[in-house]
Write a structure and sequence with these properties.
alpha/beta; 21% strand; single chain; 11 helices; binds ligand C2E; binds calcium ion; eight-stranded mixed beta barrel; 45% helix
Length: 277
Amino acid sequence: AKAAGKNRFLRFHPDMMTALVQRTEMEAGLQLAVTRGEISVAFQPIVSPRIGQTVQFEALARWDHNGERIPPSVFIPMAERSGLISEIGNEVMGLSLVQLAPWLREDPSRSLAVNVSGVQLQEPAFADGVLRLAAACGVGAYQLVLEVTESVFFDPGCGLIRQLSSLREAGVRVALDDFGTGYSSLGRLQDLPVDIVKIDRTFVSMVRTGQERLPILSSMINMAHSLGLTVTAEGVETAVQADYLTALDCDSLQGYLFSLPESGHRLERAGRQAEDA
Ligand code: C2E
Ligand code: CA
Ligand code: CA
Ligand code: CA
């Protein structure tokens, strides 16, 4: 029975061929995506409920390939596997700094968050490149936030630690993305070189009526605060969730309730309309 069970997975199915061809085609396409200008960035606002304003934008990579938008959940892991993540990551960093520089320069308390993968943080020239780019755009290092998932800390080489240290010494902040979904305990938070915690939307989605008791959520926020960290909640979709998180003293909120991720072009137009009004 064991042999038959194993064999089941070895039998070839025509769908596997189609999937394989599609993936190979996509990987070949991804190699040319940057030079072809197919990579763009969408920006999603992060709002401070205390100030009632957008204080930060998160940059999210977009890939338009053969008239189709491939989701980052597909092409980012593909880029990480095939060694293309640094090229794509640099493109995202460059595009988002250039597009948001005017908005950032207007107010030093505004910031830009960019997702970076562990592979990028291993590169010896990463920190220098980021700091040089920010300076060239007239953006302060303290206005930059790098979002990483806790997996980058599982087995951090000394290269990664060095890159993160020089960035943080220059004022760049590090956000721990998707907090709560990983394996490490709340207690491990104090050992990680991070400044901001982003509570994953699976926890935010537990708030439905606003009457529930959610000790996990309040513990995460209180623990982060007691360590001197700032807390952002992701995936806020309802006003009930926003009110609940604000009552728990969450520092900033992000989600479809406020805005979908939008192209820099559309943000600019909305900004001009707001100024004209
Ligand atoms: P993430 O960093 O956790 O980004 C948040 C994701 O949640 C985004 O998906 C965003 O569009 C989505 N989202 C925002 N608000 C809501 C909401 O209210 N409800 C729901 N259901 N979803 C919401 P997106 O843009 O598809 O990105 C998926 C993931 O791809 C990101 O998750 C991030 O891990 C990765 N990614 C995106 N851009 C980059 C990049 O430039 N570099 C790297 N390394 N990873 C990236
Ligand atoms: Ca993120
Ligand atoms: Ca996240
Ligand atoms: Ca995520």
